[in-house]
Amino acid sequence: MRRLAFLLALPLLAQSQSTFYAAFEDGQELEAKGDWRGALAAYQRAAALRPSPSSQVITYGNNLLKDYYPYVRMARCHLELGELEAAEAQLARAQAMREPEKDRENLGRRLKELQAARALRLPPPASTLPQVAQMPEIPAAQPLPAPAADSDPLTRSNPPSSAPRSVHPEPHEAPHSKAADGSEPPPTIPGPIQSASAPAPVRAPDSNTWWPWLLLLLLPLAALFWRRRPAAPNEFSEPEQVGPYRIERLLGRGGFASTYLARHETTQKPVALKRLHPYRLEDPEFLGRFHQEARLGARLNHPNLVALVDPGPSAGQPWIAMDYVEGENLDQRLKAEGRLPLPEVLRIARELAAGLSYAHDMGVVHRDLKPANIMLAAGGAKIMDFGIARVLDAETLTTTYAFLGTPRYAAPEAQMKTAVGPASDWYAFGIILFEMLAGTPPFKGETPFEILEHHRSQALPDLRPLRPDAPEPLVALVGTLCAKAPEARPRSGEILTRLAELDF
Predict the structure, then answer these.
(1) pLDDT band at 399 (very low <50, low <70, confident <90, very high)
(2) Which of 12, 202, 301, 498 counts the most CB atoms within 10 A of its CB?
(3) Which residues are catalytic?
(4) Could you give the domains of the chain?
């Protein structure tokens, strides 16, 4: 019954969360382009839809948004726009919402530097000073030393009285004395400072200032006896040792598992170790899918696929170890550079097609091919994370998680049924080719549902005006790869042949 309720509520949850995710992603793209005003508006929209920040937010299907911290990003936008007061307010909000301390400290230091620079460059003109500075007692043109407490009309607490009072001489005044005839001399009117080196009046220490000294003495003693409380258990707590591997650092988190850089304690070989999230251990479907990934990965051995070197235990907490590939992924390259040079596009396309063709021949479909799953290593492009791959002739586990791909690269048929074939991977491959050539994916939308609808119903945009130097055979190949009907797309052999015939 609980699973049925979850399934009924899942579309509503995804719809409510997807809009904030799209707005936040828009803000990141605009920020990368230097459009600070547009990025600020996008982050404000995201924060209005989802005020609570989080380090891990499952947005749709198996897709997970890392580091959703809108307030520090809004603070940065305000800083870039010179809106220092607004930036300070957003940093205070970020602190209240417990966003990362390191980001807040970096922005706080920059804010102080900008505030100091502004204060030095723009001293307030005399005409804008408060009117009290023009009063006869304190001429605005000449500074005065600090007056005695009972001589300053702005600070005394008792009203003026006509009764005589004792006046202590200021340091720059000489003590008055009686005249020779015994009469009092006329009172001295305070005037401008005669010497810039005149000493300031010395006040007696306050009898209530002893407690800060006591506090300074007690703090070191308290530090000696202070014991930190153990951290509360966290479903994302980082392990130190998994099997024979020593964990070094976190590489990333997905909807199923966390991936760590680890090192074998005997051979010292670095690996990318994937460990299932603890809250997934009670779900038999996810456990079955994870063990299936290990079995499938052990069968794949190709230079354009990330190899699985250790399938992990057959019982207990599951994990797998894969080759650690140094470099950046294609998603990072596209965000940094936009469209890629034609020779690089052709090289990456040939390597991806070779890896996909091999996996399909082995009976494995990726189902979530996207730029973030493609590593650009020194030895060429490598496809990673066959975490939701399925054997072509295997029975479907269940339909609970029928759509497991990424909306921007999802084939139309992958949205309607769970049993998909190699054609769905080739559709995603065509969308990636389009993005490498144009610098932007063909379909966008405010929500994943809107993007999925575009894949089903809208024609692929014309690539020619977006990339005039692209050869016609390559443009035609992208068009056939992105055909709506799976049977209209070319097969592996034809794709490899057409790519091999291209020459720039």
Answers:
(1) very low
(2) 498
(3) 368
(4) 6-117 (1.25.40.10), 241-323 (3.30.200.20), 328-501 (1.10.510.10)
